[in-house]
């Protein structure tokens, strides 16, 4: 027991002696138990370094490096996916108001893409014409929204984008399945469906009108 106490006191004195000096104010450098952890052979960013021909330690990414996030090309210029911009949120920056118009340039290619994506992701429930008569209606889902409702026709583009992103009541969000640009392509295509639903015979060019009128 006597030896134990003696060794115990010695061990305590050694630990306090070594560890206690770390962090105390002294002009001498502290004791380094593992100096290779404190002093590593490494290049610091921005430090000059003679190893590389251009003489700096932080090298630029090699040509062809793929960025983690590609900018989205909007009508107003490129936007990165993490920015608080209408194209990412569907809302005016810093507010909860939805943007009125699609921030992407609406081209034929975008509408084609939207048509294809709508067919994959929305038509099963909302039907190919968006009237809410998709296959799930036949299987018993009775409350699928009709996208030609006055309320949805008058909705800002940003609100439809928001519904695709986060869902609404029974409809779940599709943010995980549909990338941002495709969501706006679908919004543009929903507008095409609504416009064609509201169109009248008088708006068609003459030859198409006569062809339609001849049909029984
Ligand atoms: C699994 C079925 C299902 C799919 C797939 C689906 N929806 Fe819906 N959607 C619904 C249902 C159900 C509602 C009605 C929700 C409610 O108000 O109860 C709805 C409502 C909506 C509304 C109206 C929201 C509102 O504010 O009332 C819009 C717009 C809409 N969907 C767009 C889309 C688009 C665009 C897609 C494709 C990306 C899509 N939905 C895919 C089932 C679906």
UniProtKB/TrEMBL annotation:
Pfam families attached to this UniProt entry: Cytochrome_CBB3
Domain of life of the source: Bacteria
Name assigned to this protein: Cytochrome c
Lineage of the organism: Bacteria, Pseudomonadati, Verrucomicrobiota, Verrucomicrobiia, Limisphaerales
InterPro entries for the chain: Cyt_c-like_dom, Cyt_c-like_dom_sf
UniProt-listed SUPFAM superfamilies: Cytochrome c
Domain Cytochrome c: 109-194
Alphabetized GO MF terms: electron transfer activity; heme binding; metal ion binding
Keyword hit for Heme: yes
